Each structure stands twice: as structure tokens, then as C-alpha cells.
């Protein structure tokens, strides 16, 4: 089979599209022919040597995709030809991938492969943020950092569907426009005194800030109201400075972290939560934004595009 690989760390130029041996499923695994693959910043970090990697060089990155079953264990719930997707199985940047059956998510006929590959990882993240990390309530005011990104746009939409008022932060006016299209009630760039601006949009104060930038955690704590909360779930802009717990005490504020893999613990977790996302797509509560599609053989160009931070929505690799 063909796969997008790398055997040293570096920029997009280290990626090589080459022939590799077909994966051999072990007990409890199904073999999947991929139709669409989700590209994520975690794949960039792996290529750079800053994130965990499975296997040995030449490495195959990628953890998210959608396709059809080629073979499956006889005692599993899957059969040859079944449409499936996954968000947490390694070696997905390839034509074929062996996936543990408990990580497979049945894909309904009315959900396209590209939609699934663009939705699952980031949609499941947005979902747990407003459900598990912070229980978002109707009429809450939520501040969403990096609101034009893949998680950000889905988070804006899910928050609006939950009845919240959403204030979106983005790096450029074009990205603010994307956040408004996703449903944000108000937007701001990070220029100047953005804390004062976003507070001015919230008559009763900001209840929760969802911060994936990292270095802005202290700013988020200043932005939320007395008794408000900050959910820290990413470091796209750099590591945060340590937080003195007296800051939390003085404002009766809460700082919590979140990680998807602490939520997706079982096959039931994956499948029921994914089914809710598929229902949200059907209802029109979620519009899955696909920025661009690259052939898997053009994976280096896809990585460069994602790293440019020009993408407004998901970047897909197509085998």
C-alpha cells in the first residue's frame, strides 16, 4: 500500500509518500480501507518530534479517518463492507489501516466519509468541553479562543445549540468572519485591549472561557466574571505561565484542564457520543467546515497549509 511517512523530524519536506507493507491485523483488529483522513496539528507535532509516536521509522502519522471494512474478527459486530470511522487509531496516513474494533465507530449511510473525517476528533473535543469540562447552561456567556479553527467553529455551534451566548476570539478579521458564520454573537481579534472589548460584549460577565491558546490563560482568568471558569485544553500559542492559586481564590474562579482521551474510555463512549454529533449534523446544529482536500501523495503541501494557519476549517487527506 501507499502511505505518507517520515523517518526524521523536521518541516513538511521530511514527508515521503512511498510503498510500505500492508498492515496485518492482530486479534481484535479490523482492516479498513480509508476514503478520507483528518489532518490535525497533533500530526504536525509528531512530524516535528514534539508528540508521541507509535511504531518505528519510517513513521506513519494520523489518528483520524473514515472508510470501509476489508476484514473483521468473526466475533465482532462488523462485517466486510461496513462503513466506519475512528478518531483515535494510529497509522491513519495510509491507504489501509488496522484498527482495534473497540475504536471503530459505525458510520451511518447519510454521513459522508469526508464529513466523518472532518468532524470526529474535533467534534468530540468540542462536545466534552461543554459537557464534561464545564456544564454549559442556557443563557451562559462563553468566550471561545481560536474560534475560527476546527475545534473553535464546532465549539461555537454546539454552544449556540445549547442556548449560550458566544463571544469569539480570532487572530484576524477574516477569521472573525468565519466565527460569525459559525454563529458567534460577537467577535474580537487579539489586537489591543481585547479583554476590555470582550467584557463589553457581556452585560452580566463572561461565565466561561475555553482556552486552547495556552499563553492566554492569565488573560482568560482576568476576562471571566467573579465566580467564572476557564477551561484550558491546548497550547497552540505556547505554554501558559504558572497560575498562583491565590488568583483563583481572590476571584472565586475555577481553572480546569481537559483531555479527550480521559473521556473516550470505552467503545460505548465513542459510539454514543459520535452518534450525538451525527444527529447534530442532521438537525443542522453542526455545519462541518472543510477548508481543503489534498491527495495523500500531496501530504507535505497539506502540512504546510495547516501550519500556515490560513485554514478555516478542516484539512483532509484523500488516499
The largest sheet, given as strand count, sense and whether it forms a barrel, is: 7 strands, mixed
Helical run tally? 9
* Secondary structure: helix percent: 25-40%
What is the terminal separation in angstroms? 10 Å
The Rg value, from CA coordinates, equals 20 Å
Number of strands: 16
Tell me what portion of residues adopts beta-strand conformation: 25-35%
Order of helices and strands: EEEHEEEEEHEHEHEHEHEHEHEHE
Described by the principal axes of the CA atoms, the overall outline is globular
Multimerization state: single chain
Overall SS class? alpha/beta
Overall pLDDT, averaged? 95
Low-confidence stretches: none
Kindly describe this structure.
- It is built from nine helices and 16 strands.
- It has 319 residues and is α/β, with parallel strands linked by helices.
- Helix 2 (113-133) packs across helix 3 and helix 2 (113-133) packs across helix 8 (267-283).
- The model has no long low-confidence stretch (mean pLDDT 95).
Amino acid at each position: 500500500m501507499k502511505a505518507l511517512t517520515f523517518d526524521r523530524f523536521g518541516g513538511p519536506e521530511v514527508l515521503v509518500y512511498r510503498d510500505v507493507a500492508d498492515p496485518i491485523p492482530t486479534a481484535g483488529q479490523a482492516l479498513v480501507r480509508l476514503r478520507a483522513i483528518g489532518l490535525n496539528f497533533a500530526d504536525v507535532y509528531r512530524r516535528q518530534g514534539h508528540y508521541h509516536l507509535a511504531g518505528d521509522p519510517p513513521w506513519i502519522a494520523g489518528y483520524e479517518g473514515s472508510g470501509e471494512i476489508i476484514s473483521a474478527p468473526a466475533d465482532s459486530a462488523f462485517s466486510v463492507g461496513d462503513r466506519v470511522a475512528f478518531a483515535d487509531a494510529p497509522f491513519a496516513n495510509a491507504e489501509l489501516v488496522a484498527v482495534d474494533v473497540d475504536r471503530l465507530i459505525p458510520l451511518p449511510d447519510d454521513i459522508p466519509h469526508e464529513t466523518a473525517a472532518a468532524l470526529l476528533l474535533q467534534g468530540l473535543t468540542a462536545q466534552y468541553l461543554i459537557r464534561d469540562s464545564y456544564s454549559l447552561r442556557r443563557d451562559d456567556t462563553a468566550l471561545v479562543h481560536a474560534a475560527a479553527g476546527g475545534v473553535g467553529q464546532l465549539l461555537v455551534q454546539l454552544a449556540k445549540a445549547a442556548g449560550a451566548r458566544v463571544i469569539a476570539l480570532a487572530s484576524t478579521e477574516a477569521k472573525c468572519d468565519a466565527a460569525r458564520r459559525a454563529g458567534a454573537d460577537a467577535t474580537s481579534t487579539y489586537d489591543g485591549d481585547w479583554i476590555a472589548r470582550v467584557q463589553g460584549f457581556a452585560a452580566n460577565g463572561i461565565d466561561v472561557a475555553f482556552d486552547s491558546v495556552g499563553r492566554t490563560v492569565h488573560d482568560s482568568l482576568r476576562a471571566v466574571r467573579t465566580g467564572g471558569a476557564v477551561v484550558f485544553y491546548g497550547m497552540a500559542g505556547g505554554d501558559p505561565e504558572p497560575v498562583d492559586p491565590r488568583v483563583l481564590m481572590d476571584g472565586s474562579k475555577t481553572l480546569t484542564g481537559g483531555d479527550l482521551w480521559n473521556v473516550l474510555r470505552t467503545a460505548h463512549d465513542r459510539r454514543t457520543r459520535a452518534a450525538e454529533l451525527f444527529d447534530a449534523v442532521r438537525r443542522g446544529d453542526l455545519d462541518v467546515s472543510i477548508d481543503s482536500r489534498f491527495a495523500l501523495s500531496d501530504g507535505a503541501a497539506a502540512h504546510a497549509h495547516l501550519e500556515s494557519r490560513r485554514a478555516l476549517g478542516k484539512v483532509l487527506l484523500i488516499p
